[in-house]
């Protein structure tokens, strides 16, 4: 049976080690399901007291969970449905087309990614494929599908507005000027990532996306109803119950460092499913590479660093170790 992408052929050695009983298995945890804090952003348009309560809930969830979900977020159901539809069409293209160096979408080299080339064991393998796209490359005139391009453009524009609004609230809640975010996180510095998680024949052995934290300020996720996202809270893994009406927001490493650990960037992962494929679209709210991250408070938990330096350190660790270390590298 052919699999797209060709995981069985490419990772044959790692898979055979498992069949022979190698002790490289993922721990089998009993995972409790949780509902993330649900925040109605429509309350931000109401009178002062209700608006203040809404902002406080956003900050509290970012401190206690590092994750929350929002409704009445300003992105229409029409845009979300179109995004999903166009995304599915892209992933249904043959693997040989998707994986061309200059792929059929005319994106730059490295946009299409799948698996984990650096994996040395199954726990480092992500059973998924993705298009990781700088917003600067989303142009109708770029030569690829007009429907896909215009949909991504609509999605990115509305989600950027949401990210700016949430980041401004969070900055003000811990006493830093939100101008820093406005000046450094531009539409040209952010990314979209369209994800597909194919059915996996060994779901107890392989992650769809291995445990990690996000290297940005904020991530905004639109996922389908399949489920599979899990996160750490109080030292335990929890499965996030899907909510088709909500977008998921999570705090990234840069917000944790900038807020001096007030807000938490927590480990999360995606588990595989043996029968059903899963789709999601993630928006990464990132600054320019030369942006310097320095805590507003003293004493600072982390030394100051540029986003470029941070990204390079993450990439270096993944190449050498097979996984990301992240913020602990930058402790004072």
TrEMBL record:
<dbReference type="Pfam" id="PF14226">
    <property type="entry name" value="DIOX_N"/>
</dbReference>
<dbReference type="GO" id="GO:0046872">
    <property type="term" value="F:metal ion binding"/>
</dbReference>
<keyword id="KW-0408">Iron</keyword>
<dbReference type="InterPro" id="IPR026992">
    <property type="entry name" value="DIOX_N"/>
</dbReference>
<feature type="domain" description="Fe2OG dioxygenase">
    <location>
        <begin position="188"/>
        <end position="287"/>
    </location>
</feature>
<comment type="similarity">
    <text>Belongs to the iron/ascorbate-dependent oxidoreductase family. GA2OX subfamily.</text>
</comment>
<keyword id="KW-0479">Metal-binding</keyword>
<dbReference type="InterPro" id="IPR050231">
    <property type="entry name" value="Iron_ascorbate_oxido_reductase"/>
</dbReference>
<dbReference type="GO" id="GO:0045543">
    <property type="term" value="F:gibberellin 2-beta-dioxygenase activity"/>
</dbReference>
<keyword id="KW-0223">Dioxygenase</keyword>
<dbReference type="Pfam" id="PF03171">
    <property type="entry name" value="2OG-FeII_Oxy"/>
</dbReference>
<dbReference type="InterPro" id="IPR027443">
    <property type="entry name" value="IPNS-like_sf"/>
</dbReference>
<dbReference type="InterPro" id="IPR044861">
    <property type="entry name" value="IPNS-like_FE2OG_OXY"/>
</dbReference>
<keyword id="KW-0560">Oxidoreductase</keyword>
<dbReference type="GO" id="GO:0009685">
    <property type="term" value="P:gibberellin metabolic process"/>
</dbReference>
<dbReference type="InterPro" id="IPR005123">
    <property type="entry name" value="Oxoglu/Fe-dep_dioxygenase_dom"/>
</dbReference>
<protein>
    <recommendedName>
        <fullName>gibberellin 2beta-dioxygenase</fullName>
        <ecNumber>1.14.11.13</ecNumber>
    </recommendedName>
</protein>
């Amino acid at each position: 049976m052919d699999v797209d992408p060709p995981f069985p052929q490419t990772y044959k050695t790692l898979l055979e080690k498992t069949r022979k009983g190698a002790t490289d298995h993922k721990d089998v945890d009993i995972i409790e399901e949780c509902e993330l804090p649900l925040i109605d952003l429509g309350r931000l348009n109401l009178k002062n007291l209700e608006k203040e309560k809404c902002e406080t809930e956003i900050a509290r969830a970012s401190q206690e969970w590092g994750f929350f979900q929002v409704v009445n977020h300003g992105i229409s159901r029409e845009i979300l449905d179109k995004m999903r539809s166009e995304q599915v069409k892209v992933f249904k293209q043959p693997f040989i087309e998707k994986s061309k160096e200059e792929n059929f979408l005319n994106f730059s080299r490295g946009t299409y990614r799948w698996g984990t080339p650096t994996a040395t064991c199954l726990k480092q393998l992500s059973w998924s494929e993705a298009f990781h796209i700088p917003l600067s490359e989303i142009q109708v005139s770029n030569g690829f599908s007009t429907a896909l391009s215009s949909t991504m453009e609509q999605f990115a524009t509305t989600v950027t507005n949401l990210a700016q609004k949430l980041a401004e609230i969070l900055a003000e809640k811990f006493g830093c000027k939100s101008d820093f975010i406005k000046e450094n996180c531009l539409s040209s510095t952010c990314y979209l990532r369209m994800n597909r998680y194919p059915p996996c024949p060994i779901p107890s052995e392989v992650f769809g996306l291995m445990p990690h934290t996000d290297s940005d300020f904020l991530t905004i996720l639109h996922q389908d109803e399949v489920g599979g996202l899990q996160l750490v809270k109080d030292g335990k893994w929890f499965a996030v119950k899907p909510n088709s009406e909500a977008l998921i927001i999570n705090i990234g490493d840069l917000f944790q460092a900038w807020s001096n650990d007030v807000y938490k960037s927590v480990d999360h992962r995606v588990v595989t499913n043996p029968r059903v494929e899963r789709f999601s679209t993630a928006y990464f709210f990132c600054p320019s590479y030369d942006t310097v991250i320095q805590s507003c408070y003293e004493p600072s938990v982390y030394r100051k660093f540029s986003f470029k330096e941070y990204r390079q350190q993450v990439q270096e660790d993944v190449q050498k170790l097979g996984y990301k270390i992240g913020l602990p590298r930058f402790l004072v």
